[in-house]
Amino acid sequence: MLNVSNLETTFHTKHGPIQAVRDVSFHINKGETLGIVGESGCGKSVTSYSLMGLIDYPGEVTSGKAILNGVDLLSLSERELQDKRGKEMAMIFQEPMTALNPVTSVGFQMIEQILRHEDISKNEAKNRAIEMLHLVGIPSPEKRYDNYPHQLSGGMRQRAMIAMALTCQPQFLIADEPTTALDVTIQAQILELMKRLQEKFNMSIQFITHDLGVISEVADRVMVMYAGTTCEMAPTESLFENPRHPYTAALIRSIPKLGQRVDRLETIEGSVPSLFELPKGCPFQNRCPNIREQCKVERPKLEEISKGHSVACFNPVS
Distance between CA 55 and CA 78 in Å, rounded? Predict the structure, then answer.
C-alpha cells in the first residue's frame, strides 16, 4: 500500500538546519497496522506530517520518496495533495479541540470534506455523515451532527474526528497518538473502534504513540525511532519477546509489570542528544550499555538480522 524510502525532513533555524527525520524507510501492507514508537521528539509525528504534506516553513521535506498506490506523495503539488487528503489518505490528530474548527458544526466540517471529493448532493452528504457518526458509536447522531466541538466530550470529539477521517473511506490512515488525551476506559473503546473500522474498510494504518502497551494491542509490526532515525523494526510479537536494539530493550524493561512490586522502575540513563549536536556515530551512544569504539565514529545502518526483524546496531542485544 505504502512504500517510504530515505525520507529526510529538515527545519531551517537561525542556528542552522536540523534534520528532524533522517533516512527513514518503511512499508505498510494492505490492511496492516504499523506502529511507530519512541520518546517525544524522536520524529514520529514529523514523519507523518511529511507524508501528508503538512510540513510548513521553516520545515521542508529535503529527500526521499513515499509511494502510495504507485504515486509519489512527496512529488505532488499542494493542489494534487488536496485531492488525495481525505479521499485516499486521512489523519486522526492527537488533540481534537485543536484540529476541529471551533466555529463550525461537526456536521458542516464532515460534509465539506465529502462534497470536496464526492459528486453527490448536499442531502446525500449529510446522510452519509450521520451514518458515519452512528458507525463510530456516537449516540443521537442526528443531534450531534449540529453540535459544535466544544459541546462534545473528549471521547466524543475523538470519535467525531475518526468519523470525519473515514467519511470517504480512505485506504491509508495515520493515527497520531489518538488516545493519549483520553482516560483508560475511553482509550480502550477507541482502540476497539479503530480495529473494527479497519476490518470493515480494509485500511492500512500508521499508528503513532509512545505507549508500548497500546502498540502491543493494535500493531502488526513496530518501528522504533530515536533522534530522527529508525533503530529497530520487527513484527510486534518478535519485538516484545526478543528486542535487539539496546534502546528498544531498555524501553520494554521500563514498562511496569502487572502484579510486580519494585522499589524503583527501570529508567534509561542520560538524555536524548540535541538535534543540533548529534554525535558523529550512533545517536544512542551516550546512553548505550553495549557501546564500542565503532559506535562513536560510524552510524549503523538498519539491517535485517532475522526474517522481518531489522536493527541499526553494531552490537545488538543477544
Answer: 11
The segments of the chain whose pLDDT lies below 70 read none
Please tell me the total number of residues recorded for the chain in this structure. Answer: 318
Give pTM, 2 decimals. 0.92
Instruction: Give the CA-trace dihedral at 34, 163, 99, 203, to 10 degrees.
Output: 20
| Beta-bridge mates of residue 246 | none
CB of 314 closer than 8 Å to CB of 294: yes
pLDDT in the model for residue 282:
95
- DSSP helix/strand/coil, 200: helix
- Set out the domains of the chain in order of their start, with CATH numbers: 2-219 (3.40.50.300)
pLDDT of residue 270: 86
pLDDT reported for residue 211: 87
Q: In what order do the strands lie in the sheet with 89-92?
A: 89-92, 172-176, 204-208, 33-37, 221-226, 229-235, 309-311, 303-306
Per-residue pLDDT tens for 54-108? 999 999 999 999 999 999 999 999 999 999 998 999 999 888 888 899 999 999 9
Amino acid occupying residue 220: D
Q: Locate cell 512527496: which residue?
A: 74
What CA–CA distance (Å, rounded) separates 9 from 24? Answer: 10
**Could you tell me if 296 and 279 are in contact, meaning their C-beta atoms sit under 8 angstroms apart?**
yes
Please tell me the distance from the alpha carbon of residue 255 to that of residue 153, in angstroms, as a whole number: 30
Q: How far is CA 231 from the centre of its chain?
A: 16
Straight-line distance from the first to the last Cα atom of the chain, in angstroms, rounded to the nearest whole number? 33
Distance CA 109, CA 163 (A): 11
Q: Which three cell numbers stand for residue 131?
A: 451514518
